[in-house]
């Protein structure tokens, strides 16, 4: 039973990684991969999957680098499994990092966290609350400090919860911990996932802005 669970988990991870890689790849790179049919990529990705990469940890390292772009943080980021996975497909570019890293990591993080919440959405007896889901969703983005990036991420976290309450029809003062995912209708489950997807997109845009600032020589 344990082996079956691990195989299922690995398959879910594989599907998540492959979908994100293809989604984030430039069309020219996708065509080149299809044409060459390089099996080395599949083997390298499988090795990474076997290490059970933590998307929240990858995001933490990336955000730390964006806030404090020094050699130590850059070196730690480059060694991260998910950064290496992106580089397998896209090579190394500015700062020795693969292009589109913010889009790749936020997309992978969305898929990884969705897989954590999905069983609860499908289980009518789940005890997971909307607040539990929100904590899963914002993990890795609780950034301290006075940088514009840190302040932007904190605002997104607050806005996420407020938007979730509004879209699900709750008053602003409502506690998300009072509502279980099992109480959501099919329509509201879709609304929950849509709000989460929009949040991930906003995080990606914020990280992209900071990444471009670093490429252009800005450093707050």
What features would you describe in this structure?
The protein has 220 residues and is an all-alpha fold. The protein has one domain. It has helices at residues 2-24, 27-36, 39-50, 55-67, 71-78, 81-90, 101-122, 130-138, 148-168, 186-215. Helix 3 runs antiparallel to helix 6 (81-90), helix 4 runs antiparallel to helix 7 and helix 7 packs antiparallel against helix 10. The chain is globular. Mean pLDDT is 80; it is low at 1-11 and 17-43.
Short description:
It is built from 10 helices and no strands. By secondary structure, the chain is mainly alpha-helical.
Summarize this structure as a short list of keywords or feature phrases:
220 residues, mainly alpha
Q: In terms of per-residue confidence, which ranges show pLDDT below 50 for 5 or more consecutive residues?
A: 1-11, 17-43
Which structural class matches the secondary elements? mainly alpha
Number of strands: 0
- The total domain count is 1
What value does the average pLDDT take?
80
Label the overall shape: globular
What is the share of helical residues? over 70%
What percentage of amino acids are in beta strands?
under 5%
Helical stretch count? 10
Rg measurement, Å:
18 Å
Helix-strand sequence: HHHHHHHHHH
Biggest sheet: strands, sense, closure?
none
Amino-to-carboxy terminus distance: 51 Å
